[in-house]
Amino acid sequence: MGKPIIYLFEQLNEEQVETIRQAAPEYIIIDSTRKSPQMIEDDIEIMLGWNADLGQRLLASDTSQLKWVQSISAGVDMYDLDCFWEKEILLSNSSGIHSISISEHVLGVLLSEFRGIRTSITNQEKQKWTRNNISYRQLSAQKMMIVGTGHIGQQLAIFAKGLGIEVYGVNTSGHPTNGFIECYSHKNMSRIVNEMDIIVNIVPLTDDTYQMYNERMFLAMKSGTVFVNVGRGASVNTSDLIQALYAGKISFAALDVFEEEPLPEDSPLWRMDNVLITPHISGLTPEFKTQLLSIFMKNLKQFLTDKTLSKNKIDLRQRY
After folding, report:
1. Which of 141, 149, 180, 184 would staple 171 via disulfide (CB 3.0–4.6 Å)?
2. How confident is the model over 10-67, as pLDDT tens digits?
C-alpha cells in the first residue's frame, strides 16, 4: 500500500484544498473533479462526498483502507449502512448546514398558499386582474406539527413561532425539545395529527419512517390539512398522498422530494391545482462548501488525533 488518500468528490477551490493538505500532510489529496495522478483505489482512507460506483468497489474490497466518509448531505439512506457497520467505517453527515434554507423554504411555500400568491402568479401570466379565484388565510395561530426535531426542525420552529404559529414536534421517543409546545413519539403521531393544521415532514429515512405517510396516516388527519415534505421522498406513499389530495384530506401539498426523482412526467401531481412542486431545492444554501469544509475540518482534526469524529457522526445502528 502507498500513502493514504483523502479523496474529494465535492469540488473545492485551491485555498480550501490547501487547508486540508496543511492539516493532513501525510495524506495525498486527490480532487476527483480535476485531472489527478494515477492512484490505487484501496489506498483511499477518507472520502469527502460519495460516488456510488467507487464506493461499492471499496466496500467490496478486502484490502480497502477506507475508514471514514464525510457525506455532503444530511440524509444518509443512500449508503450501505450495514456494510459500514460491519467494516467499522465511520460516517458523518452535513446536518445543520441546511437549517436556515429549508426553514425559509417551508415558510415561503406556506405563505405563497395562505396569502394567495400562487394564484396571483397564475393570474398575472394570463394578464387577469381578479380576486374571485384567490383564497387567503391567516398563517398566524395555525397549529404546525414538525415531524423531525433535529437541527432543521428546531430552526423552523424558531422562525414559525416568530409568525405566531403554534409549533408541535414529533421525534423518535417523544422527548421534549426546545422551541416546541409539546413533542410526541412517532408511534403516537397518528393519534394527534387530527389536531394539526399543517404537517411538515423533515424526518431522515429509516425502517421506521419508510412510507410512514400512508393511507392510514392521511385518514387520521383532519380534512383540509396542509402537508409539506422537505424530508425524504420515500417517507411518503405517493399513491396514498394523491388519493388524500383528491379526497380533500390534504387541501394543499408543497413537495420538494419524491419517491422517484425526477418526478415522472406522467405523475398526476403535476396537474393538481392544490400541489406545489419544487425540484429538491429546499436545501440549496449559499456558502455551502465553506460550511461543509468547517464540519469536515473539525472531524479531520479529531480523526487524525484518535480515529474518532467530533461532529455529526452517524449512529449506524440507529441509521441517523
Report:
1. 149
2. 889 999 999 999 999 999 999 998 877 789 999 999 999 999 999 999 999 999 999 9
Q: Residue 305 and residue 30: Cα distance in Å, rounded?
A: 22
Helix (H, G, I), strand (E, B) or coil at 252: strand
Q: What are the pLDDT digits (tens) for 181-227?
A: 999 999 999 999 999 999 999 999 999 999 999 999 999 999 999 99
This prediction's pTM: 0.92
- The CATH class given to the 99-277 domain equals alpha beta
Q: Which residue has the cell 471514514?
A: 68
**How many degrees, rounded to 5, is the angle at CA 171 between CA 167 and CA 177?**
55
Q: Which residues partner with 276 through β-bridges?
A: 254
CA-nearest of 187, 231, 235 to 209 is 235
Rounded Cα distance between 236 and 211, Å, is 5
Please report how many Cα atoms fall inside a 13 Å half-sphere around the Cα of residue 208, on the Cβ side.
Answer: 16
Alpha helix (H) residue ranges in 253-306: 288-306
Domain boundary assignment for the chain: 5-96+287-306, 99-277
The residue assigned the cell 465511520 is 90
Of 307, 284, 297, nearest in space to 74 by CA: 284
Main-chain phi, psi angles of 213, to 5 degrees: -95, 90
Helices (H) and strands (E) in the chain — how many of each? Answer: 10, 12
Domains 5-96+287-306 and 99-277 share a fold: yes
